[in-house]
Write a structure and sequence with these properties.
The protein has 155 residues and is mainly β. The protein has helices spanning 2-13, 142-149; strands at residues 24-31, 39-47, 54-60, 64-75, 78-84, 87-89, 94-97, 102-109, 118-125, 130-138. The protein binds copper (II) ion (CU).
Length: 155
């Protein structure tokens, strides 16, 4: 009994033994890209449940040559994607990665990722922590794809 209690206490006190979840990922979306596409985008909502500011300093993936953090912004009437050095998520706050705003740019996939296939992304934080995400590619709805094909995307 005492031994069991001691073990429980040690477990609770040792941060290394606990599976750390740094950010809560909501509604992840990696749209399927056409075959041969050299970039894909990843969208999701990042929630920081902790009491300290979390700063994502670097992102990598075994499935892509490079992962960049971007911000889509209109500069002098021209839509641009500005690379971001970091993504800050304040305590108890949410950062939305969505079309037309912050997003992840997945560059040079190692193969054509189709609907339902898994993609791994590693977030590296300024405090040395690392969080691995297992996400899935999702086919954009046919309706939207057809609209885009006829040049009426976004309407
Ligand atoms: Cu981008």
């Amino acid at each position: 009994m005492f031994k069991h209690l001691l073990f429980t206490l040690l477990f609770l006190l040792s941060p290394n033994l606990q599976a750390k979840e740094l950010l809560q990922i909501e509604r992840p979306w990696i749209p399927e890209a056409p075959p041969g596409a050299s970039i894909m985008a990843a969208y999701m909502s990042l929630y920081n449940p902790g009491n300290e500011l979390l700063v994502i300093e670097r992102i990598d993936s075994p499935d892509f040559k490079k992962v960049e953090m971007h911000l889509s912004k209109e500069v002098n009437g021209i839509a641009k994607m500005l690379p971001q050095k970091s993504l800050k998520i304040p305590p108890k706050a949410k950062r939305q990665l969505k079309p037309g705003s912050y997003h992840l740019m997945l560059i040079k996939p190692r193969k054509w990722f189709r609907n339902g296939e898994p993609i791994n992304i590693n977030l590296h934080f300024s405090n040395g922590d690392k969080q691995s995400l297992n996400l899935k590619v999702k086919k954009p709805s046919t309706k939207k794809t057809m609209k885009c094909a006829t040049g009426k995307c976004g309407r």
